[in-house]
Amino acid sequence: MEVRPTPSSAPTSSGIETSPLTPSIGVEVHGIDLSRPLDDATLAAVRRALADNSILLFREQTDLAPAELVAFSARFGPLEHHVVSDFLLPGHPEIFVVSNIVENGRHIGAYGGAKWWHSDLSYMPEPSLGSVFQCIECPRDGGETEFAGMYAAWEELAPDRQRWLLQRRAIHDYAWHYATYLSHRKPLTEEQKARIPPTAHPCVRTHPETGRRALYLSSSLVHRFEGMSFEESRPILDEVNEFATSPRFVYRHRWRPGDVVFWDNRSTIHRACPFDEQGARRRMHRTTIKGDRPFLELDPSELDA
Length: 305
Ligand code: OGA
Ligand code: MN
Fold this sequence. Notes:
By secondary structure, this protein is of the alpha+beta class. The chain has one domain (17-295): 4-Layer Sandwich (Double-stranded beta-helix), CATH 3.60.130. It is built from seven helices and 18 strands. The protein has helices at 40-53, 66-74, 150-156, 159-166, 174-181, 190-194, 230-244; strands at 17-20, 27-30, 55-58, 88-89, 92-99, 102-103, 106-107, 128-137, 145-149, 169-172, 199-202, 204-206, 213-215, 222-225, 250-253, 260-264, 268-272, 283-290. A hairpin with a 2-residue loop joins β4 and β5 (92-99). The radius of gyration is 19 Å and the shape is globular. It binds N-oxalylglycine and manganese (II) ion (MN). Residues 98, 114, 120, 131, 145, 270, 272, 284, 286 line the site of N-oxalylglycine.
């Protein structure tokens, strides 16, 4: 049975009306039509709600056209053009198509990917702030997207592991990810690989808008910890990833056509759930907003205790 949240009766102090999706992460935002330009106050409230809640759901945006998805997303920052250019929507290179559909013998979107926990574009020196994902078509069963909240995961992590992670950087590597997980697709070209060299980021980041710490790791895009081998790194990465994706940190979104979910890549990781990729149709449009270089504010005395 699907549980639908009841809207809170009064608008929140930030000026938009929201209701929680889970006790820890995610809110549904009510009463906003994303196809219309947002005024500055609403924009600021949406931005704040994203930073605080990590996931925003907007239902019934059925008529949102590609240009309108792009216009809404671009209010939050410059939009990325994904390095895998085969799956950009013709005429709208800011839209990355995620789909299992084949038309005229050609995959119209990225297929068979995103099944492993990750944060979008974490392998870039300035990774994505957030992604906006619109459901155009989805299967009756399966094909949900799961999100894990990295504020809470960080806060509940064992103090010894926290202290260890505070002092380390992780190496995010898309070419390694692609070769390991996406071997069913056409390999990356040398030119594409040259655009995405491995990049080190702190394992914990200070969120630039809330000042809160969030775990910034995922076992599918992080190849290893800096200064450690792949073999040494793996068990620790797997341990942290398993903890961070415990059910109490996770929101699973069951899609309906017209849903738009805006997630914060600085404080969540996500993955796609399985569905019948041969028999069912799923088509999603994604924009990816550029963010800042991750940083960690740390007082060295914290490590003395
Ligand atoms: C993505 C992604 C998940 C999904 O497009 O960034 O991870 O459910 N998609 O398709
Ligand atoms: Mn993703």
